[in-house]
Hints:
mainly alpha, about 0% strand, disordered C terminus
Amino acid sequence: xxxxxxxxxxxxxxxxxxxxxxxxxxxxxxxxxxxxxxxxxxxxxxxxxxxxxxxxxxxxxxxxxxxxxxxxxxxxxxxxxxxxxxxxxxxxxxxxxxxxxxxxxxxxxxxxxxxxxxxxxxxxxxxxxxxxxxxxxxxxxxxxxxxxxxxxxxxxxxxxxxxxxxxxxxxxxxxxxxxxxxxxxxxxxxxxxxxxxxxxxxxxxxxxxxxxxxxxxxxxxxxxxxxxxxxxxxxxxxxxxxxxxxxxxxxxxxxxxxxxxxxxxxxxxxxxxxxxxxxxxxxxxxxxxxxxxxxxxxxxxxxxxxxxxxxxxxxxxxxxxxxxxxxxxxxxxxxxxxxxxxxxxxxxxxxxxxxxxxxxxxxxxxxxxxxxxxxxxxxxxxxxxxxxxxxxxxxxxxxx
Length: 400
């Protein structure tokens, strides 16, 4: 599938995108409002960063215990329930006088249930489009994520200039309810992809199988570590430029959109695999410029250029799909999403701690240097893997 026209003629693809877009706008407006609320209340770069990205650490727990649900429960029910749970949690965060510890309890609970979202959406996308259309469909999905971040952060920044952070949180809660309605009305009720009862042991068995392959392990690490360290640095925008954080996040989303457009639609499939390492290097290198503490305009340009490199995830997800059996597609993509967001949470904690000890600009630079080191190390390990002649695609073990 190489045509956007064919893609959008596919039944359910448009409502699938619309529901995700509304959910993503709610997430960006709510996240910016929450980070601003916590920073105003505490004056702490560390707590502000952790409030926006720290809940993703809770997805580690969800990844360990809940991921078997991604293939063993109806996807429409999971996605609509997830949106309603986020609506309820965000409404609670808007309560006046809510203590900071209670704020973190709520957002950690949201992070726990969010661990299902990536796997369910990714698995459902392969059902709507099939694997041969996954890269193009995922590129549009990522482009929508970039556009909604541009719109969400720009709108959130404007709203915060006019309204209180708590009012913005209530708006985000209403958008989550709208997303649940679109899911319910626009998507077909599908059966689970995999038979069997969801359980902790089923999750562990699936994760163990996915992690047992060295090529898959290297692919997962390439998806998680460089990305997570860069996003950890991104979590410091509120403390780096309090009045222009929305602008920086919007520029990052714009760069992400352009990268996904170029890689998903314009780059030939035969060329894509060679772009994984260059794109991950691009993702981090411009942030080294932050050591000079540039102004908002130059920082925005650096962020936009770097964010083009997020398109590396398309290349790596295509590799992951080629290494994964069909009945574990949802769990494989869920493990990717969980590990990636958890690593982003780890990155936010590390970046926040570094900023507390040094400065936001120094911390952003150090996180970028760590990401570059991780990319070069994983690239060297990947070349060794290819030299050893490991299988490049999923092969089911022979009987007997």
